[in-house]
Amino acid sequence: GVMERLGLGPDILHADNPRLVYGRMTGWGQTGPMADQPGHDINYLAISGALDAFGRAGGKPTPPINMVADFGGGGMMLAFGMLAALLHAQRTGEGQVVDAAMTDGAALLMSMIWGFRAAGLWRGPRGTNLLDTGAHFYDTYETADGRHVAIGAIEPQFYTALRRVMGLDDDRWSAQMNPAAWPALKAELTAIFKSRTRDAWVEAFAGHEACFAPVLDFDEAAADPHNRARGTLLEAGGVVQPAPAPRYSASPTVAPAMPGERDDAGVLRDFGFDPAEIAALGH
């Protein structure tokens, strides 16, 4: 790989520091017949089996932007793996290489669906199952103003609240977990949701625990009262962006530092670099 060509591969560095934790994140992983092939998130999702599950019934597979393989199966898995390996190094003195393949991570994120499949609870093609928009009580719906709402009323008490708010009194709605009934019930819900605006539905569902939420765009999310109360989104360097997560009870949340705002020399000093080393790095 590139690091080996630079003389900075893990074998060389571990010879100098056996406690070193060395992270490697690639699409295909360090081994296997595709290890040296190019690719992007959509390709890793495709090979992992995850992409086939994303999409509407009768439609083609639809990638969920590039969040699953790049960030969920790649970056998040690498961060978790590095922390686990650092704990191991602290306790044993033994460093190691963390091989974070986006294909592996994307497959792992599908663990629950693999479990459903093994239990016979995920039988149909995409868009016909419990959590992939097959069920009428777990989907998004367009409203009268062309906006959308999201419903996730899986548990009985939430489904009961959904029925109460929308006036779904007919016995047909009692067949919540009958997949054969889902298409007809979904068609009715589609028509009912189009009878009011999104904000009118927000008002109707207020105070009812039905697992309901409006679908917000970027600007609406930044102005949302809950997001503002938690500081979910913030402005740094004139750019609205997500705040770091998760939150800690003892450590403060540090806002992102934009180019020109960081004290790089101070960060290097905190890591133990002396003034000469910092100057050599251009700071």
Description of the structure:
This protein is an alpha+beta fold. Among the domains are: 1-119, Crotonobetainyl-coa:carnitine coa-transferase, domain 1 (Rossmann fold); 138-215, 2-Layer Sandwich (formyl-coa transferase, domain 3), CATH 3.30.1540. Helix content is 41%, strand content 12%. The chain is built from 13 helices and seven strands. It has helices at residues 2-5, 10-16, 41-48, 67-92, 102-109, 111-118, 156-166, 182-193, 198-205, 218-223, 225-230, 264-270, 275-280; strands at residues 21-26, 96-101, 138-142, 148-152, 212-214, 233-236, 239-242. The strands form three sheets. The chain has a three-stranded antiparallel β-sheet, with helices on one face. It has a two-stranded parallel sheet with strand order 1-2. It has a two-stranded antiparallel ribbon with strand order 6-7. Helix 3 packs across helix 4 (67-92). It starts with a helix and ends with a helix.
Condensed summary:
The protein has 13 helices and seven strands. With 283 residues, it is α+β, with helices and mostly antiparallel strands. Strands 3-4-5 form a three-stranded antiparallel beta sheet, covered by helices on one side.
The stretches of 5 or more residues where confidence is low (pLDDT under 50) are none
* CATH classification class of the domain at 1-119: Alpha Beta
CATH architectural type of the domain at 1-119: 3-Layer(aba) Sandwich
Relevant CATH superfamily of the domain at 1-119: Crotonobetainyl-coa:carnitine coa-transferase, domain 1
Summing up helix and strand content along with how strands pair, one would put the structural category as alpha+beta
Q: Quick check: average pLDDT?
A: 95
The fraction of residues assigned to DSSP E strands is 5-15%
Q: How many strand elements?
A: 7
Order of helices and strands: HHEHHEHHEEHHHEHHEEHH
- CATH overall fold name of the domain at 1-119: Rossmann fold
Helix content: 40-55%
Indicate the radius of gyration in whole angstroms.
Answer: 24 Å
Major pleated sheet:
3 strands, antiparallel
Question: Rough shape?
Answer: globular
| CA(first)-CA(last) distance | 29 Å
Helical element count?
A: 13
Instruction: Write out the strand line-up for the largest beta sheet, numbering strands in chain order.
Output: 3-4-5
